[in-house]
Amino acid sequence: MKIVLFRVSMGLMALQICLSLSKLSRSPTMSLKKLPYLCPKLNPQNTKKETSISLSLCLTKRELHFSFFALILNGLSPNTSTAILHQDLLALERYTDYKEGFTLLRPSSWIKVDKAGATVLFEEANKGINNVGVVVNPVRLTSLQEFGSPEFVVDKLIQAERRKESTKDVEVIGVAERSGQGGLEVYEFEYKVDSTRGGMKRIFTAAFVASKKLYLLNIAHSDKPDSPLDTDTRMNLEDILHSFDVAPTT
């Protein structure tokens, strides 16, 4: 009996791995290089960058630094003490904002809510800790690479997370770079946060610069030890992450 149960368990594990590989292979625009990441030493040429707030409508490079992490410092996730994970696949639908110029997949059952600082925000009903939000800000840069490498950006992002009083611990899972429409450069990050506001959360972030605007996507989902992020939900969240792009021309 033990042998049979062991074989069933191994079979299920193999099936999950196959499903994950199959899901990744369906993203033709993805040139993802997920790597284990240890916070790198800062590039000397970038160490003097400051975080500052400007009253100007167009952001300088230092203001971009502030703008990029305002999403993290202010947080798109409302304070929620508990969240129950579901085991079903989320139904995704295309959401395109032609005025601001971006597109992404969103869970069709999640509710669109208003929140200061967010261009758009979708929350799971009664589980606001699970959400997908986008922030768009004007910048003077023409590409994200002018701000820094993916490693430099994620280091700054993690520093911002650690400065929050609610943060107990943060761990980077992956850093990636891919091409969007027309060769657009897109940075992607995945990390875990243990916070006094909602407990353990998995965060997926994507960013790009287009038409002198900085576009930021932030996906947050509960990932507690007693109810970890399941494979199906994770695959859905990755689909949303990889779908974030500049809006197609009409």
From TrEMBL:
It comes from Cephalotus follicularis. InterPro entries: Mog1/PsbP_a/b/a-sand, PsbP_C. The keyword Transcription does not apply. Keywords: Signal. SUPFAM superfamilies: Mog1p/PsbP-like. GO terms for molecular function: calcium ion binding. This is PsbP domain-containing protein. One of its GO terms (biological process) is photosynthesis. Residues 92-246 form the PsbP C-terminal domain. It comes from the Eukaryota. Residues 1-20 form the signal peptide. One of its GO terms (cellular component) is photosystem II oxygen evolving complex.
